[in-house]
Design a protein that fits this description.
Layout: H1 3-16, E1 27-31, E2 41-48, E3 58-60, E4 69-71, E5 78-80, E6 88-90, E7 103-105, E8 111-117, H2 122-127, H3 151-165, E9 171-176, E10 181-187, E11 191-196, E12 202-205, E13 222-224, H4 228-234, H5 247-251, H6 256-261, H7 263-273, H8 298-305, E14 334-342, H9 348-351, E15 352-358, E16 367-370, H10 392-405, H11 407-441, H12 445-485
Antiparallel strand pairs: 1-2, 1-12, 2-14, 3-6, 4-5, 7-8, 8-9, 9-10, 10-11, 11-13, 14-15, 15-16
Helix pairs in contact: 10-11, 10-12, 11-12
Length: 491
Amino acid sequence: MSTNLKNETNLKKNVTNGAGKNLSECTTIIVGEKQTADGSRILARSEDFDALRTKNFIVREDTNNGPEEFVAADSPFHCPLPKEALGYTGMPDYQYHNEWGSAGWNTAGVGESSTETIFSSSEALKADPYVADGLSECCTYNIVLPYIKTAREGVKRLGALIEKYGSAEGFGIGFIDDKETWYLENAGGHRWLACRMPADKYFVTGNQSRYRHYDPNDKDNFMASADLIEFAEKNGLYDPKKGEFDFHEAYSKDDIADTTYNYPRVWGLQGLFSPDIKNDVTKNTFPVYAEADHKLSIADLRRAFRFHYDGTDHDPYLHNNGKEPYRPVSIFRTTQTHILQNRPWLPKEIGCLTYVALGMADLGVFLPLYQGIHKFPEAYYLGDENCSDDSAYWTFRKVMCLGMVNYNKYAPIIKETYAYLEQENDQRQKEMEDDYVGLIKSGHPMAAHDLLQDFSDRTLTHALEVAHDLENRLFTHLTVDIQKEYMFHGA
């Protein structure tokens, strides 16, 4: 076997096996309805894993005869399932269509984002170790979202699964509906805490448990494993003589690795939204919830997920520094970034909306995916670890690769093009939604559905056309640049 063939075989093997045991190292942002510009509720996350983990979109229909057992393809976990399941959308890795669903909505109008990788402390894991064949991150979407009708039900179902089977690793998971947004952080093998998102605040986290306060008597705003505080006290993780119970102090990892990988993202995003907050980037004293200096819009969330300490000494792309110690929010190996938005004043088919940027958000475009659609253009279903012309994921990824060849020259071209497309889509969305509501009110639901599906198909197809055009423009620029470097002319 030739060296090149060996290298390609090893590459495929690493991708198939998850490149060892890579972690889904993400950034999560949640915004309460009184903190948004339009009164919507937002649950958002970037999925930062491996650029070769191509995303395939899926759409599942309601069923009364679903699978009665879930068996994970890349972990030892398995569990029984109810036969009755709601339909849902997802964005799994290309080789795992029945797990790693990541983010989307079910037909009841409940959204889930799964998962943010977090870590329990070594002391907590001594008392309550992870369970090797327990609930792993890859399984938490497809065995929960099809079986819940509210965000609160999502927390209860997931919490019960954690307690019954144990967690194989640390994770944070969000649920959103037309009334509430909840976010759950697990702790060790069998314990967890979930908090209802305050309406007038926002929350940011990056690969670290953030929760601190917990009031077991406040059932409206907290849910948790029954012995969360007692177990911590019994095992020396919490001393009541030292003050109020602090979930982070009792259960969470917080060490030197967090100071450059996790702290800077929280510091940077809170600085972006709330510049009056005087955080110290070297200390984990960041408020769990914060208030922005202005009402946050979808445009603000897009900007946040594109954040990389822009224009500062810590900007890795400006300075061509792949060894920058401050880990940015937007990184090349992001597989997708999603912004789940619930607008309860609209029919759920258009009120439950996901903006998705495939690949790196900084050099990507956020596209609208509505809960009420029943299919995507074929390109969004396709693609594996090998670059191909028929895959939507790889179409956007190729533009990003070209942009990173000469970021300071090519990135502005990409950003300007995609900014115009997002503005164009935003305006066309408003027009389509007004027409959709008009058709529903006049008693024409089928025509409304056809309008929505046609809009989705045209919008997603046009985005591919724009990306293909960008690819050709960038190759033209690259050709000129290479020719200048290797002209060998002057005889």
